[in-house]
Amino acid sequence: VGAEIGDNAHFLIKEINEQPRTIARALSGRIDERFSTAHLGGLNMTVREAREIKRVTILGCGTACYAGELGAQLIEDLARVPATAEPASEFRYRNPVVDPNTLYVAVSQSGETIDTLAAVQELQRKGGRVIGIVNVVGSTIARQVDGGIYLHAGPEMSVAATKSFTSTVTAFALLALHLGRIRDLAPEQGRRIIAGLQMLPEQVTEILAQSDAIADIAKEIAQSNSVMFVGRRRGWPVAREGAQKLKEVSYVHAEAYPSAELKHGPLALISPEMPTVAVVPDDDLLDKNTSTLSEIKARKGPVVAMAHRELSTDIADRTLVVPRNEPELDPILMSIPLQLLAYHAAVVLGRDVDKPRNLAKSVTVE
Ligand code: G6P
């Protein structure tokens, strides 16, 4: 997980392929099997302080914010604390009410993003407690916060964030487990999540082995002017991040919508010329998700689905079968084919994969 490109064509594919190891590194030394919890030594928070948290507000920019949206759902699901994520750039300009019983979490791969740093400083000025989920050790945000979790994902060289996204969501799963186990979460639920986390590296390897099949789909996607991404609940941040990846590295326009919102406007865009990429886990919302896909197919929109089993061709032209984990952790796995889709589309179109036009790895000036 170093900064050398080796025999890889691009840093982006190198970093996508590193994810079995980077996820394992995010977990390393942090799982406590005996008490079915996570140890997060860097949090600097007593059990009593953790129990007093009434709300969690997560701040970040770009991909870090989408990872935060999944983090918020993990914290609500496992720790039963209300949690939301918001772009740091919006938060800092809206004179937010800073609450002493809210835990603020700043997410940043680089630890240098100006809007995230400014949000942290504003929070601290008003007495807020802020922890960081950061990759770069000793970075400005890492030094500024009151404690946190390092990703240990190694240098991320490609402008488009990939391994830092999956490591951030993994770190949030650990934080949610930790908070859950000192609040409401039963030991067997803790064990279930730990077993799921431990399965991730191997399952990521299985997904990476489908790269060629994904490259085939990417050839078709690359010919489109615009692509719709849909998902619901945990699939919604995955869809947002998938659309972002495609836009930033291939320059193909994409937009993401929560599946059920499609009928409130964007369904008007669906046609044989606009493919949809759908996140369709085999969970309690499967029927709802497949009915959205039927609506798309009725308008002759091509559909590519990320699912846990092959879907019927009436609702999805192509299915990418992703291994099943615990429902809370499935989004980590579902995001990986979307990274590969964006990568292969960018390659087909001959884009500057690691350094897309107009973008910077970290935005340190406004
Ligand atoms: C830039 C990068 C994105 C990244 C965002 C936040 O816009 O191009 O890939 O998600 O900054 O960066 P951070 O280092 O704070 O996670």
Explain this structure to me?
This protein is α/β, with parallel strands linked by helices. The protein folds into two domains: 11-200, Glucose-6-phosphate isomerase like protein, domain 1 (Rossmann fold, 3-Layer(aba) Sandwich), CATH 3.40.50; 210-348, Glucose-6-phosphate isomerase like protein, domain 1 (Rossmann fold). The protein has 13 helices and twelve strands. The protein has helices at residues 11-17, 19-27, 47-51, 63-79, 88-91, 114-125, 140-144, 163-181, 187-208, 211-221, 235-250, 286-298, 330-348; strands at 31-32, 37-38, 55-60, 83-87, 102-108, 129-134, 148-150, 226-231, 253-258, 276-280, 303-307, 318-321. A five-stranded parallel β-sheet has the order 4-3-5-6-7, sandwiched between helices. Strands 9-8-10-11-12 form a five-stranded parallel β-sheet, sandwiched between helices. Strands 1-2 form a two-stranded antiparallel ribbon. Helix 11 (235-250) links the parallel strand 8 and strand 9. Helix 4 runs parallel beside helix 8 and helix 8 (163-181) packs antiparallel against helix 9. The longest helix is centred in the middle third of the chain and has 22 residues, at 187-208. The chain starts with 10 loop residues before the first helix and ends in an 18-residue tail after the last helix. The mean pLDDT is 96. 6-O-phosphono-alpha-D-glucopyranose is lined by residues 61-64, 108-110, 113, 116, 159-161, 359, 361-363.
